[in-house]
Design brief:
Elements lengths: L2 H16 L3 E2 L2 E2 L6 H16 L3 E4 L5 E4 L29 H15 L1
Antiparallel strand pairs: 1-2, 3-4
Helix pairs in contact: 1-3
């Protein structure tokens, strides 16, 4: 994946995320809300589109594995972030790190 393709993918993914939780005083993506549910659906769809395995633990944390779950001692790359935001956070608060993790998978898969 070249830089232009990565930028196009980033912009398309961000356009989907940018409208979730918009509020006049900032972004509101609180846990356990309709916005949170929308973000979780987005995450699951993005992971599934990349052939990733999605797992949700008993605390509601979502993980996606590319290439299957690793065995103990396997080498790998881990990236992490959060989907929710602080009260009236900036639009980059939270999902940007998740989006970049998916974009990294795209680049590595290319």
């Amino acid at each position: 994946m070249d830089a232009d393709s990565a930028l196009t993918t980033f912009r398309a993914m961000w356009a989907e995320l940018d409208r979730i939780g918009v509020h006049p005083t900032g972004t509101r993506r609180y846990s356990w809300t309709a916005e949170d549910a929308a973000l979780r659906r987005w995450f699951t769809a993005q992971a599934s589109a990349r052939g990733m395995e999605v797992h949700t633990d008993a605390n509601g944390n979502i993980r996606a594995w590319w290439g299957g779950r690793p065995a103990d001692g396997d080498a790998g790359v881990i990236t992490g972030s959060h989907l929710d935001s602080v009260a009236d956070g900036g639009k980059w608060d939270g999902p940007l790190g998740v989006l970049l993790g998916f974009l990294a998978v795209d680049v590595l898969a290319a």
